[in-house]
Amino acid sequence: MTVDNLHRELAPISNAAWQSIEEEATRTFARHVSCRRVVDVNGPKGTASASVTTGHEHRIDPPAEGVQAFLREAQPLAELRVPFKVARQEIDNVERGAEDSDWSPVMDAAKRLAFTEDRLVVDGYDPAGITGIRRDSSNEAIALPERVTEYPNAVAQAVSRLRLDGVGGPYTLLLSAEAYTAVSETTDEGNPILDHVKRMTKGEILWAPAISGALLLSARGGDFALTLGQEVSIGYLSHDSENVELYFTETLTFQSFTSEASVSFR
After folding, report:
1. Quick one: DSSP state of residue 130?
2. Residue 190, in any domain of the structure
3. Would you state the torsion angle of the CA atoms of residues 76, 77, 78, 80, taken in this order, to the nearest 10 degrees?
4. Beta bridge partners of 137
């Protein structure tokens, strides 16, 4: 983290309290973010990084006769911020030896950022020019069966589509919190449905509470890229006699290169 753009040196927070806050933030963000485990992650490239190339160009009006001109296309990085407040009492308790400070505002904000990142990757974010995996997919969405025991058949159908399109595995299945719970708790003739689904994908089954339904995608690499400028960081905004206002921030963009490499479940 750089002090210059986060202004952490201005916060009335001791080194021990910062460490405690960051440990909780790291645990919570990692627990709730899912897409980073299956798409390619590039970076972090630093706070000065503003865009990534798309590899495309388009012709523009030439500057002089006899000259051809083209403009290289780039996709900008979006900056996300999630402000939150922590009580100074809880911060000071750390210096007094407390190991049970209430960092629930930190956890709530970290969870919100993790959910936002996953939704941006899966469903897109138009203001930042991000299409998202679902809208970019060339495969027709499959309806999740009402009966959980029929999930393996639906997943097998999705895997077959990817293979027919020449998209190799292993395949990762992202399941919403509701779908993951249903799959984890259901058996068919004594056999866990989760085991059936794993045999279909030959890859990971991930709990993805930020998304709706489910999403199957190839984990072979090279199909999807999440580019980070500034990695998830905590900055300082202000403080008064009772609270310190902080914020999570990150800069990122997402690109989908292979429309055949995913199948969405409604």
Report:
1. B
2. yes
3. -170
4. none
* 194-226 pLDDT tens trace: 999 999 999 999 999 999 999 999 999 999 999
Number of structural domains (the chain) is 1
CATH number for the domain that contains residue 121: 3.30.2400.30
Beta-sheet strands, E only, within the chain? 40-42, 51-60, 69-76, 78-87, 171-175, 187-188, 191-192, 205-207, 214-218, 224-228, 233-239, 243-256, 262-265
Residue 175 is part of which domain span? 3-53+75-265
Asked if the structure places residue 132 within a domain, the reply is yes
Q: What amino acid occupies position 182?
A: A
Instruction: Classify residue 147: in a domain, yes or no.
Output: yes
Q: What angle do CA 117, 206, 33 make, to 5 degrees?
A: 25
Identify whether 66 is part of a domain.
no
Residue 249 · residue 80 · CB < 8 Å: yes
Q: Is the pTM of this model over 0.85?
A: yes
**Per-residue pLDDT tens digits for 82-136:** 999 999 999 999 999 999 999 999 999 999 999 999 999 999 999 999 999 999 9
Residue 189 scores a pLDDT above 80: yes
* Whole-angstrom distance, CA of residue 41 vs CA of residue 34: 12
Q: Identify the pLDDT of residue 190.
A: 87
